[in-house]
Every structure is written in C-alpha cells, then in structure tokens.
Design brief:
It contains two helices and six strands, in the order E-E-E-H-E-H-E-E. The model has no long low-confidence stretch (mean pLDDT about 90). The chain has a six-stranded mixed sheet with strand order 1-2-3-4-6-5, with helices on one face.
C-alpha cells in the first residue's frame, strides 16, 4: 500500500515532526508519528495528528482513522484521546501485538 508522508517544519525550515498514513482495513491508518524530542510539549503532536487526519482522510477517501500506540506512551495517548481517538478492538492483519499496544480509532467526519 502506498504511504503518504507529511512533515512539519518551522520558520527556519527545521524538521519538527513527521508522520505517514495509508489505507489499512478500510481506515486511514496513521503511522510513524514522531516529534523532534527537543521540540516536544509545544503542541506539535496535536498539529501533526490533526493535519494527518484531515489530509489522509481526504486523499484516501476514508471516513475513519486509526493508529497503534504504546500504552506506556502517556503523552501520545493523551494527545490522541484529546483529539477524539477512542480505543477499539485490535485489527490484526498478520501482526500480533501484546497488551502493551492500544488500537485507537477516530471518525474523521
């Protein structure tokens, strides 16, 4: 499946955050979400995720988004939950994750 890649850069054209999305199980699946550790705590995760949801859903023509997140990554979990993501039953497409991974879904409409 083709992945769409997105970057957030600041005024100095420094890479601040990166993420990808692709169609998986009928949803716009967000993956490889990363914020520069030196720039965390500035709302970039929220901005990146919001823009990925909007751009990815539109480009792929899908109404739902999903992602995997480690339960121990409290900052990421809080960010996604504040944006409306809710835990859903895991879709295992040949991959098996343990209980340390949560599968979150968002209706992007």
């Amino acid at each position: 499946a083709a992945r769409l890649s997105f970057c957030l850069v600041n005024e100095g054209v420094e890479l601040c955050a990166f993420g990808q999305c692709l169609e998986k199980a009928g949803r716009c699946h967000l993956s490889r979400l990363i914020v520069d550790p030196a720039k965390r705590g500035q709302g970039l995760g929220n901005l990146l995720t919001t823009q990925l949801v909007q751009a990815g859903s539109q480009a792929l023509g899908l109404d739902e988004c999903a992602l995997y997140v480690l339960r121990s990554n409290h900052a990421a979990l809080q960010c996604y939950q504040q944006l409306g993501f809710r835990e859903a039953p895991m879709i295992e497409e040949g991959r098996r994750f343990g209980p340390e991974v949560a599968y979150l879904v968002l209706d992007s409409k």
